[in-house]
Amino acid sequence: MSHLANNLSKSLQNSLGAEMVSFVAELFPICRSITGDGVRKSLEIIRKHIPLLIHEVPSGTQVFDWVVPQEWNIKEAYIKDSQGNTILDVRNHSLHILNYSSPVKGKFKLSELKDHLFSDPEKPEVIPYRTSYYQENWGFCMTHKQYEALEDDTYEVCIDTTLAPGYLTYGEFYIPGESQEEVLISAHNCHPSLANDNLSGVAVATFLAKYLVDLPYRKFSYRFVFGPATIGAITWLSLNQDQLDRIRHGLILSLLGAPGTYVYKNSRRENTEINEVFQYVLNQWKNSGEIDDFIPYGYDERQYCSPGFNLPVGSLSKGRWGEFPEYHTSADNLDFISAEELGDSLALLIEALFLLETNETYENLNPHCEPQLGKRGLFESISGSNMNQKHFSMALLWILNSSDGSKSLVEIAKQSGLPYRLVHEAANALVAHNLLRPAIVQHSIGELTSNYTF
Questions:
Q1: Is the model more confident about 1 or about 136?
Q2: CB neighbours of 392 closer than 8 A, spacing ≥ 6?
């Protein structure tokens, strides 16, 4: 039996949620990007919790159709008016800089400066998040109220950044299990000062790893990857092509710290176990959740699910990117996330992993009519005497009738309407009485196939 069996208590959820809020608060001020010292500093903070292996991939490295870019670092960036008054300073908020901005120093008339100022007229109170990773540019982001308040003046501009040969840095943590087959958990860590997108995903992934590493038993091995969005996943895939056949399940974590409905986005391969498990879990979890079909846009699932790999990788979030007003703005701050939401997301993932670890497919060893359960102490002695026993008895009968090597426990729970944990308990009882045995199931991984015996 998996040691993931126990649910998190509400008090433990809240306690871990509070720890995650503090963790996010430590990461929040850092000016991160897809490369640079901000990423390294962030990975070192994660490393306080789990022993990450840090990888440095040189600029110029060819990764499929992409090239690892030059490394970007920032020392300071500000705008001052002609009287020396500071209009804007990146030290006050890391979203103020156009991320990956080229260096510039000089004086500019307002008409010249405006071409390099970014604001959102529809959200005049917040700073937008803007990037220019692959097209050289410089600039600042500000609230639209700030933008409109600028006077016709000559402004001193300083952007002290470097774009030079360096490295793309990502972190990786591997937790061995009984099987070499892996569950891949990925979270992007490149966004500066955005609490929900995606420091919440980084926090939940980190604390999920802490939870898993302390377990005395794991059926699967687990691999956690913390890297920049898009180019990070592409780089990791390029460098690990010889190990991808081990990935049995995969999940992208994002937007898990704020209120909202859970959304699971299916992997490109529709008939995968991880899709089935999350469809079931979200249907059972509190106010339920929503399932989105795969589309080739979004987070890094689109890289893992590209046709050359077609890995069984879905994504989990609360709400959808771009569909809440705080998205990619300074309103996605520490007040937007909560210990309750982070703790609930962690608890949901632990429940889902329990299903993945225990979702066996069985073979009935007594398939010719029902076995006599009463003489084995498995059936209620007086019909209708105990509702819990009645449900357990129904679980026994469903499993025996369905276990022809073609249906998993999740499928049986879904068909019967019985709770998964009850079905799992009943299956263990039948195995203990030699009425059931694990079946041999063939699992397709990408374009490769391997046999895995439960």
A1: 136
A2: 422, 425, 426
Nearest alpha carbon to residue 256 among 305, 222, 205, 210: 205
Residue whose C-alpha is closest to residue 113's, from 145, 69, 81 = 81
* Contact assessment for residue 199 and residue 24, using Cβ atoms and an 8 Å cutoff: yes
Answer for the pair 415, 342: CB distance below 8 angstroms, yes or no: no
The strand pairing partners of 108, in sequence order, are 155
DSSP assignments along 17-45, one per residue: HHHHHHHHHHHTTS---SSSHHHHHHHHH
Q: What is the pLDDT of residue 440?
A: 80
pTM for the full predicted model: 0.93
Which pairs from 7-13 meet CB under 8 Å and 24+ separation? 7/347, 7/350, 7/351, 8/343, 8/346, 8/347, 8/350, 12/343, 13/340, 13/343, 13/344, 13/346, 13/347
Cα distances (Å, whole numbers) of residue 438 to 358, 377, 389, 408, 434 = 11, 22, 24, 10, 11
Task: Look up tokens 């691999």; give the residue.
Answer: 223
Q: What are phi and psi of 234, to 5 degrees?
A: -60, -45
Residue 301: Cβ within 10 Å count: 27
Between β-strands 117-118 and 140-141, what pairing exists: parallel, antiparallel or unpaired? parallel
**Residue 198: is the preceding peptide bond cis (ω within 30°)?**
yes
The predicted-structure confidence for 244-254, as pLDDT tens digits, reads as follows 999 999 999 99
What is the torsional sign of CA 362, 366, 371, 374? negative
- Of 94, 117, 89, residue with least CA distance to 332: 94
- Cβ neighbours of 73 (radius 10 Å): 18
CA 401 to each of CA 131, 330, 368, 388, 395: distance values in angstroms, whole numbers, following the listed order:
57, 56, 10, 20, 10
